[in-house]
Amino acid sequence: MKPLVVFLGVDDDGRSRMAAAVFAHRAGRRAEAVSVSGRRVEPGLVVRGVLAEAGIDLPACCSEEPSARLLRRADVVVVMGYDGQVRLPGTRRVEDWCIDDPRGKHAEAVRCIRDALDRRCQRLLAGLGVGALVMRA
Predict the structure, then answer these.
(1) Helices (H) then strands (E): counts for the chain
(2) Which value, to the nearest 10 degrees, does the dihedral of the CA atoms of residues 29, 121, 81, 9 take?
(3) What is the rounded distance in angstroms from the CA atom of residue 51 to the CA atom of residue 56?
(4) pLDDT at 76
(5) Cα separations in angstroms, 52 against 43, 108, 110
């Protein structure tokens, strides 16, 4: 069975959706990524453009409503947008990624966020025993 990583957006799905798209792009079909958040936001043109530069299709990555079943099924839950301890009963592994919100940022700042997410996704894939695919730059 493919590893499942849930990217949990605490405030909204801006960061979690971006992270899930980067992870899915790097993982190919060898791992699954899901963005979950109670609040969805429309990604800006800058965010979509910066991800498209790297061949990442953000519109293909949609967010779901959080559910206990999905969180229990996850191999890893990555919490986005929260700088404290989150308790998720039944979850095997939880990571807190402190990443800037891309909303309203200029392209160069969003590229830095994309690249930071990419490095973290590569490490996560390696930790799951799934190597990362090469990403166009």
Answers:
(1) 4, 5
(2) 0
(3) 5
(4) 94
(5) 13, 14, 12
pLDDT on residue 91: 61
For 107-119, what is each residue's pLDDT tens digit? 999 999 999 999 9
pLDDT computed for residue 60 by the predictor: 85
Q: How far is the C-alpha of 84 from the C-alpha of 98, rounded, in Å?
A: 10
For residues 107 and 50, the answer to whether their CB atoms sit within 8 Å is: yes
- C-alpha–C-alpha distance, residues 71 and 66, integer Å: 8
DSSP E strands in the chain: the ranges are 4-9, 32-37, 63-64, 76-80, 94-97
Question: For residue 25, which of 65, 53, 63 has the smallest C-alpha distance?
Answer: 53
**Phi then psi dihedrals of residue 75, to 5 deg:** -75, -35
Alpha-carbon span 15 to 87, nearest angstrom: 20
Place of tokens 């891309």: 102
Sites in the chain below the pLDDT cut of 50: 137
List beta partners, residue 7. Answer: 35, 78
